[in-house]
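Table S2 (text version). Query chain:
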Amino acid sequence: MLLLFNLNMIKAYFYIIVLSPVFAFAQTADQNTDGQAKPALAMAYKRANNLNDSSKTSRSNSGGVDAYPNLPSDDSFDDIKVVNKVSRKTAVINPKSELRYSNANAKLTFSDFDAAVSDLNRVIRKNPKFADAYIKRGNAKNGIGDNLGAIEDFSKAIQLDPSDYIAYNDRGYTRVIIQDYKSAIADFDRALELNANYAKPFYNRGIAKAKTQDYNGAIADFTQALIISPGHVVIYKNIGDARAGLKDYEGAIAEYNKALTLSRGYADAYCGRGKAKHELKDYKGAFADFDLALALNPKHSVAFYNKAITQATLEDYENSITNLNKAIELDPEFSDAYFNRALIKNKMNETKGAVADYTSVIELDPDNVDAHLLRGVANMDLEHFESAVEDFAKVTALSPENVYAFYFKGISENQLHSYEDALTDFNQAIVLNPQYAEAYNGRGEANYHKKNKKEACADWNKAYELGYAAALDNINQYCK
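Corresponding structure-token output:
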């Protein structure tokens, strides 16, 4: 019986060569442009913007830059001109509207966003040129998740008063939420042109720059925000996160220590410092910091997650899964936790459980390339080749230069006796990486079954020449 490849060998190849190391605290870097680079499968901490529930732990608190919540309010900043903004109006309004406007401000303070929008709708109907009302309504709309509506309101305020630096800042803030970082930075630039003593645009621009991995620019902006308005622990924490982004882990720890000097109860700073210690291989110190974070906040899902990653790095898989379970229980939409739990289940040969977790990731993020790719490999392990082909086809649609997807799709199609399709996929894998020995070996099998013995032997010889030793068995048995 012709046996030209071994699924266990392929599985070992993928998990050892492609995925290693799995559990590093990687930054987002989904490039795979040359067909040879390893995909960034240890997913970065995704930044969640939990505006509606301040009791939830923001994903950014994993050691990523804090954007929302925890953004200092205007009143907490010390820059002079913010105070003046409270009383500055762009229109004269009647006493009844003034009272409703004040009531809306109070409702915003207590996060009663729907009621604030309702009140401000009535104020604006009576006073359509009242720019501050549009700003307040934009903030309330952000609170209920209507970010596009918020941008419309901030833009209307700017139209009414082009000198309104707070409207530019708040529109930029909203553009960070929807990940339009280029436009956000332009808004913060304009706010600072109008008022260079306003700390919030520096802070927010630092957030946007960190999101685009301009960590040096982020540090400069955070530092300027501190010069204008000293003492904000979240800013020290964010400088630490940016230094960690630059892989300056010692510098990051120094910044987290500054934050903790100001606030010993800042769980997120312990969490970030623990991550930096992990990177320095101070695993004992990392565990101590994650435990401190959890002592301060037993519902800190990211602290459980970070602790699990360190345990997985030390191959303590059972305890790692326990902590990932806790992270998911606290935050059922924590896709990174599902993803890493799936990776651990793969290592523990719990393949069906891994497929279930990859499926959870895909339900939360349908275009997640890594989850589709790894679910496809897990389906191959279960000999669910039709499902595997579907997953790999999704990867090739989302990431046309992902050489592994074409290769594994070809292997699965060989198993389904779809040799013509397999040839197409192996050909593409070889176009993407002409040195991909395993792809030549797989193409050799497809050619052999297509009765193209000459081409099959040429492929196996090429695979062997490139270092794939197993191809020699095929050469000796089928090419003599």
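Notes on Table S2: Confidence is low (pLDDT under 50) at residues 1-5, 26-90. The chain has 25 helices and no strands.
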